[in-house]
Amino acid sequence: MNELLRQLFFLPEQGSTFAVKVDHLHYFLFLTTLAVAAGIGVTGLTFLVRYHRRTALAPTPRLVAPMWLEGLFIGVPLSLFLLWFVLGFRQYVWVSSPPRDALDVYVTGKQWMWKFTYPGGPSAIDTLVVPAGRPVRLLLTSRDVIHSFFVPDFRMKRDAVPGRYTDLWFEAPKPGRHLVLCAEYCGLDHSQMRGEVVVLKPADFEAWRAAQLGGVPVAGLPGAATAPRPESMAIRGEHVAAAQGCLQCHTVTGAPHIGPTWLGLYGRMEPLEGGGRVLADEAYLTESMMDPVAKVVAGYLPVMPGYHGRLSAEDVGALVEFIKSLHPTRPGVPAAQEPAYVPVRR
User: Range with the lowest mean pLDDT among 53-57, 161-165, 228-232?
Assistant: First the structure.
């Protein structure tokens, strides 16, 4: 039935688990609306035939509907609208809450291409390679104007905005290829800003990633799009932090300084000057780099300069990954098992 309705509605392939949920809601809305409209039409036609005026002088009787009928006419449509809202809201909450084990991929839009960077490497242009059956979280930004990352087969679309990160997640259940489009007019070659999501079996994905890091293409898999990158995004982020002077104000040891320590910062709730708290996620960390005075952590002065226009989208993502890699030692966990920060030798 699902496949029949998809073809009747001329919908593209259902390439993700979210696509199935969206389509089911679409079917429910359309079929319910169609049934109600048909019922109203049949009722109106019946009344027209049965109760039409027989003569020009025939009086029109005054009818008073009972309360139960008034309640029925109001309650049934209201119940349907509330049911639609509940179903849609559940899907919104689900798609807005990426699983903790999701594979992170940084997506950068630029006139007129998409760049995909994996925290541990590699990177690719216009081809996003992901494993089947595993959640993937996309962290979207732009280097120039607003773009919109749109995958019709996944029923997902999200704007890529300069100077900030937005996230979106999906899970593709089976291998395949899916078209990526830009859904926000971004200039002369907007219609040519296309890419592709290539979904591989988990073993093939690991082979592809190893081949990309080694710079050796594997037969039957997408070839190496860039030169081998020996360093991860976190290591690159450390270099960026040192070059931009970030470590002069922020420590990586937990010690207080001019600015909040980066040790254990990611995922922590930070109290703000003037009241309130904020979750230190990718969006907040990016905003703090671009507009430091927007949300000032309690106990610190707003002395940090803004880095809008001074950091590329890749550098911002690398800094975020560097901060995410700084974990405090947990009680009861041996130091050998703790994924602690290891400085790069210079």
Answer: 228-232
Where along the chain do its domains lie? Answer: 2-51+61-95, 103-214, 233-337
Give the separation between CA 236 and CA 95, rounded to whole angstroms.
31
CA 293 – CA 54 distance, rounded (Å): 77
**3-state secondary structure (DSSP) of residue 87:** helix
- The pLDDT of residue 219: 59
Distance of alpha carbon 190 from alpha carbon 184, whole angstroms: 8
* The listed CATH number (3.30.1490.20, 3.10.620.30, 2.60.40.420, 3.40.50.300) that belongs to domain 103-214: 2.60.40.420
Do residues 181 and 190 touch, judged by C-beta distance below 8 A?
Answer: no
User: Residues 192, 110: contact at Cβ < 8 Å?
Assistant: no
pLDDT for 338 beyond 50: no
DSSP conformational letter for 294: S
Do the domains spanning 103-214 and 233-337 agree at the CATH topology level? no
**Closest of 154, 152, 171, 163 to residue 109, by C-alpha:** 163
* This prediction's pTM: 0.74
Predicted local confidence at residue 128, as pLDDT = 92
| The predicted structure's pLDDT at residue 329 | 59
pLDDT, averaged across the chain = 84
Measure the CA–CA gap between 16 and 172, rounded to whole angstroms.
4
Residue 94, CA distances (Å) to 21, 22, 81, 98, 168 in order: 10, 12, 20, 8, 11
Q: What is the architecture, at CATH level 2, of domain 233-337?
A: Orthogonal Bundle (1.10)
What integer pLDDT is reported at residue 330 of this predicted model? 47
Write the CB contacts of 93 (distance below 8 Å, at least 6 apart in sequence).
none
Among candidates 142, 183, 137, 189, which has minimal Cα distance to 161?
A: 142
**Residues 235, 244: contact at Cβ < 8 Å?**
no
Whether the ω angle into residue 112 lies within 30 degrees of 0, i.e. cis, is: yes
Rounded distance between C-alpha atoms, residue 108 and residue 91, angstroms: 26
Q: Which of 168, 158, 135, 15 is nearest to 23 (CA)?
A: 15
